[in-house]
## 1
Amino acid sequence: MSQTTPSSSRVIVVGGGLAGLSAAHTVLERGGTVTVLDKKPSFGGNSVKASSGINGADTPAQRALDIKDSVKDFIADTTISAGDLARPQLIETLTSNSAPALEWLSTSFSVDLSLVSRLGGHAIPRTHRGKGGAPGWAMTSALIKKLEKAAAETPEKATLVKGAKVVGLVREGERVTGVEYQVGEKTERVTGTVILSTGGYAADFSSTGFLSSYRPDLLELPTTNGDHSTGDGHRLATSVSASLIDMDQVQVHPTGFIDPANPDAKTKFLAAEALRGVGGLLVDGKGRRFVNEVERRDFVTEKMQEVIAAGDGPVRLILNEESYQELKAHCDFYISKGLMKSFANVAELAQTTGVSGAQLRETFTSHGEYASGKQPDPFGKQHFRNSTYDTETPIYVALMTPVVHYTMGGISISPTAQVLDASGKPIAGLFAAGEVIGGVHGKNRLGGSSLLEAVVFGRVAGESASK
Ligand code: FAD
Ligand code: SIN
């Protein structure tokens, strides 16, 4: 085993997704020294794939669009969504730091967050993205670029090691003092305060994995997550007596794409919730709506599963031209992958798929009446967007399946990101941030709140570890 130079003032960040990147930059901003280790050949994790955006309350972008929001409103939505597992202190940290987190991304990394949309469960539009590519890519690539620049210009301050799987925590007495990691055949050790930011366990499907232990009912579902999402940080933390909470709380997202060319693939592309936010409709195999498309995702998933179990599938997502235009870059990507298909009109869809053209006509007409307020939507939809669906103009259609997407459970932390043991006592030298932490979202995470969790708690962990 070789030994890298020990440095007690070093902060070691395990995992180079958005949480780890945010933590690493915060350490550098505080004048510290940081080593970032990631088991994959590149940084980014699931963060790079994020497609809908990041939440913020009372932001300049909202004000520019005349959207009135407040931390209080964001707390209310998050608390309702979290149900009886809501933890007020963690929700307060998440929400009250949201506008500063977005400002940090905009000012320190020039990330464009000028567009704002409403995702399910939010009373107010507060999910921010930019005009360019997908928001996850925009954020992570900007943070990675700046970190790589720092590592190149000041290697004594920032060390980045890719393909480095952390396999153990080092302790002196009760204090965590470093990590052991594997690069190729070699095992290395580095000394410092540790931040775990290894993401969740939504791809941990093995027979000894967390999904088998806590949610065996989900083993047959596909996942949106990269194969790194195997709960490594959770296991590292419990090896030093950290407590895990809410581990059975796993989010199933309603809309994963079924690829007609590979319908049984275990890993699916996510159909961003933003597609429903811009007006996309969900219909059953006959062409009937069955849910308020912009309800909370746990509710939409439940309704979809009822449709599928009753033999009324498959479920399709349908966008009209206006919705398509509003998320054109996303849709063109899905079309290029063969996941979404355009049809000249409803008749063409009916001919090729067996969906009832007459039923779809009726669905479109009644949806228009609900949107114009002539009648209330029987499914309770109140926020309509791009709501005119015409049977004679192009539509964009995709097959949908529920997908394991995010793990609400994880490492128990304090509001300052210290890892806690079963008695609630902080474990010295160990912090955690991002999806690896548990309890922030209780029973159900709101769309857009994980990127926020990554940035907010990444910054909190970076600051705490720097002290
Ligand atoms: P990750 O980004 O997953 O990064 C974890 C990193 O840790 C990885 O790079 C991994 O390789 C590394 N790692 C793991 N184990 C080890 C180890 N033993 N040693 C070293 N490195 C290790 N959330 C939103 O808020 N808005 C969205 O629009 C959105 N869209 C999404 C779309 C998709 C397709 C997916 C999958 C998720 C989406 N999410 C979204 C959720 C969100 O992207 C993630 O929850 C969030 O990015 C997690 O960030 P993280 O930094 O905690 O983990
Ligand atoms: C999505 O784009 O639907 C995912 C958003 C999220 O997970 O927050």
## 2
Amino acid sequence: MSSLPIFPGSVDALGQPSTLGVMGGGQLGRMFVHAAQRLGYFTAVLDPDPTSPAGRVSHHHIATGYSDAQGLKQLAALCAAVTTEFENVPADALAALATSRPVAPGAAAVAIAQNRIEEKSHFTASAGVAGVTCAPYAVIETPAQLDAVPPDLLPGILKTARMGYDGKGQVRVGNMAELAVAWADLRGVPCVLEKRLPLKAECSVIIARGWDGAITGFAPQYNVHVDGILALTAAYEGNMPPALAQRARAATESIASHIGYVGVLCVEFFVIDDGSDDGALVVNEMAPRPHNSGHYTLDACDVSQFDLQVHAMAGLSLPQPRQHSPAIMLNLLGDVWFDAAGQTRAPDWQAVLALPGTHLHLYGKLEARAGRKMGHLTITGANIAGVTAVARQAAHILALPGLDALG
Ligand code: ATP
Ligand code: MG
């Protein structure tokens, strides 16, 4: 459905400011809530966890399952518009909300992001226009498709079509025998086998698209993953060859426009060696929401990815963000709370915060677990050399991985 602009400060019949809703109560929801509240909105979070990071800072927290009819009814009754903070919200729940409220992004776009098979078809149809392809792949849904896998896709990575994130649901396979075992271990669920590519680099592009089709966004970020999880994002002028950056942006805009996307969209790319100086772009996956690789925008840009999420869903104009400082973002996983012997420890925040240009974000999660995203640290400064030097010091204090990639 089309939207009515919901201006900040507008009140409902009871004299209350408009309420914006979000499906999901994780850290992305929490940062959305902060951005919405800054504009004077009330907020509502739907998440079954009573201690969810976003639920604890929101005016309203509906602690039901994502498909719970009562919970969805309550959310629709409270909210002028609804967004989502993670892609595994059931698309049916978004479709149900959309019968009475503007929902951005919509169920159809989220459904594509939930399924790697549909996502790849969508990329082929949309990013292809900008000369960007997917990694060579095969769909495996039946034993016959398994047997018919072309040998040149090996060594490859078998990925479940659904519910993968942070490297979960992925198995590296070297030959047909390993592939058969891996698919059986994944209980024969629908998968894609992707050829393992020699990555020169990884990057992502975050844009926002409004109800009127207007697009704004950020320059590509350079990302470093460790064990399938984002460890570091570097955002500064010159982090990518300009022609490559332009193509990544064009592909992202095409991916969004092709499906009339509304909201914040992140598209992840690989840069692979094709013999050219710049390398070639391969599109990996999309997130129908703000993304971990865009957290630096909170501290290094005048408008953040969460501001754009609020503006897009509420029909407010979408300003062109300006990055005012080069930045490096370091992810803080639960591992930071454990020493090499597995004993819990208190990270030395005092030493980190004594370093210039450090911005610490902790998500208020009650329990640290290895691999769990607990917070992030963004470092800003006058130039990337200075930012890198501080990032190295912080990473050393907290024993963080990924800094080697900066050279
Ligand atoms: P996310 O948390 O970003 O949703 P995910 O679990 O969905 O992650 P992918 O983004 O598909 O997984 O893969 C995670 C990481 O594994 C990539 O960022 C990349 O470092 C590596 N990887 C994935 N596919 C390939 C490939 N075809 N060739 C080489 N490396 C790959
Ligand atoms: Mg990924």
## 3
Amino acid sequence: MDVEIDGLSVEFSGARVVQDISLRAGSGQFVGLVGPNGSGKSTVLRCVYRALRPTAGVVRIDGDDLPATSARESARRLAALPQEAVAEFDFTVAEVVAMGRVPHQGALARDTDEDRRTCAAALDGVGAGHLAGRGFLTLSGGEKQRVLIARALAQQPRVMVLDEPTNHLDIAQQLEVLSLVRASGLTVLTALHDLNLAALHCDLLHVVDGGRIVASGAPHDVLTPALLAEVFGVRAHRVPHPETGAVQLLFDRLPAQ
Ligand code: ADP
Ligand code: MG
């Protein structure tokens, strides 16, 4: 299942914060959006998970325009982890994960045995089965993120959209969260703050600056010292990862002009 963003623009009170963005995440691809704070990444993703209606352009999932698809149908295809997802859920972990089943249920339906099995498998799959009875609010940041991934997996979508899913996590948790998402095999579109994590995990990167895509391609081709100086204002040295050969970056300040 693929996601196609075509000519997307977003204005807030006349100010254009996303300008004519087009990109595609092919079936099973892990696609990253990187860019400085305020460049428009979250705004693009919010249009994809229908929290925001674009001023122009369309988002298609498997060829179907999103506005033409019911909210329920699009929730069966696509699950989202928004940037500040952790709205105060005063629920148990099991209840939070069960919310992922709602798009598959009738109006007044109760959870079926199959729903319960799907939720338990999703929680076990992220190594959080032991947390089922805990209050969501009592969890650490990493545990919350794992539970929200389990909720997204219980939704049985084909596409996952994530907005900086590794924020506030320690390094082990950051690596774990991205591995879990990768292991799902779903089509993934994610904003990522950390360029080295993006380089390790993404098949394809789009660099967003000032609401436009300024570079696209494989991490190795996109994360050049010239682009990093231009877009992020840093001096970057490229080093191959000693085991995988993936491009990794060391940063310095740009010399004073
Ligand atoms: P990023 O996720 O790359 O940090 P955002 O998409 O959150 O960037 O924001 C892009 C720009 O749009 C910023 O200048 C931000 O202040 C502005 N913006 C985002 N949402 C709104 C809104 N609801 N109203 C007005 N401006 C907004
Ligand atoms: Mg953002």
